[in-house]
Specification:
By secondary structure, the chain is α/β, with parallel strands linked by helices. It has helices spanning about 5-10, 15-40, 60-75, 85-90, 135-145, 150-160, 185-195, 210-240, 255-265, 275-280, 280-295; strands at about 50-55, 80-85, 100-105, 110-120, 120-130, 240-245, 270. The chain is built from 11 helices and 7 strands. The strands form 2 sheets. It has a 5-stranded mixed β-sheet with strand order 5-4-3-6-7, with helices on both faces. A two-stranded parallel sheet has the order 1-2.
């Protein structure tokens, strides 16, 4: 059960924190009531209440934390704080038995990270983005070209059938050898190309000319190549039993296809959540909450939102 804010923020070309918090406040109770009704269950039947403690926008996080604390207090249920990225990492386990250890690539609007998972609930960070997250780079390129928000889905659509070799964008190399990511360079390269060629933002994304479609397809190829290069290098070094691709950008068709090809090349199974469980959702938080609950993790009534919460 999801209440999307994408249309609200589209006019601004990105998420407006106060608008996000107000939308959460207005919709969280109807969403919970609908989810409980659809599930045919009641609060007394629950074992625990899991909630995203962070990271994220503090206003939106506070709404969730306060409502979760209220439900847990009134019904005498344990309160289980969950890390947002842990939700993405546990999402594939909702529909499959993932072999561990696994390498997990988390790609979303705010995060691009590479984790090693020895088991469910055990997360070891190997690498992260040093500047823009991949999804953020998609959004910024889309805004530059007048394609709207969020940028990932529209770039994905426009790239299908376009010439992704029309432009060669350099993929950043991390000099210290860490499996980190960097996407500010390719984003800036697109900006310079647009300025140099005098490309104007499109009035109607659905009618974007071939020049725009080839440009975003080439940009998308560079981002996907950078993501999977790090995943491949880590897999060759650490020899996991499986690969995980998760996060909102995991809905990207080019990324899914190329990840599947890489997994086949490495002889490893690939686990990708269905589209509905790739973007932010409560089911993934419940999955991570179940693991945390079984590990004995609990939150007190003084639990507070943490916009910079570390994982682990």
């Amino acid at each position: 059960m999801i209440s999307s804010q994408a249309a609200l923020h589209a006019a601004y070309g990105g998420v407006v924190p106060e608008v996000a918090a107000r939308h959460h406040l207005e919709n969280i109770c109807p969403v919970i009531e609908k989810a409980m009704a659809d599930a045919g269950t009641t609060f007394p039947e629950l074992d625990a209440v899991a909630v995203t403690q962070g990271p994220g926008l503090v206003g939106a996080l506070l709404v969730g934390v306060q409502v979760a604390k209220s439900i847990a207090f009134v019904h005498g249920k344990p309160l289980v704080p969950v890390h947002h990225i842990a939700g993405h990492l546990e999402a594939p386990s909702l529909g499959a038995d993932v072999p561990f250890p696994a390498l997990a690539l988390v790609v979303s609007g705010g995060h691009t990270s590479l984790f090693e998972m020895a088991a469910r609930g055990q997360y070891h960070l190997l690498g992260r983005t040093r500047d823009d997250a991949a999804g953020e780079a998609f959004d910024k390129v889309a805004k530059l070209l007048g394609l709207g928000y969020p940028g990932g889905p529209v770039i994905d659509r426009l790239s299908e059938g376009a010439n992704d070799r029309a432009h060669e964008f350099t993929i950043a190399r991390i000099k210290d050898g860490r499996p980190d990511f960097s996407f500010s360079g390719v984003k800036t390269a697109v900006l310079y190309h647009v300025r140099r060629e005098g490309i104007a933002p499109v009035a109607d994304p659905a009618a974007a000319p071939a020049e725009i479609r080839d440009l975003v397809a080439s940009f998308q190829r560079a981002v996907v190549t950078a993501l999977l290069r790090k995943l491949k290098e880590a897999a060759q070094a650490r020899r996991p039993r499986s690969l995980i691709l998760t996060g909102g950008v995991a809905a990207n068709r080019r990324l899914r296809r190329d990840a599947a090809t890489l997994a086949e090349e490495l002889g490893l199974p690939l686990f990708v959540p269905p589209i509905a469980l790739s973007t932010d959702n409560a089911a993934m938080i419940a999955a991570a909450g179940q693991v945390a609950f079984e590990q004995g993790r609990r939150g007190g009534w003084d639990l507070d939102a943490d916009p910079h919460l570390p994982l682990g």
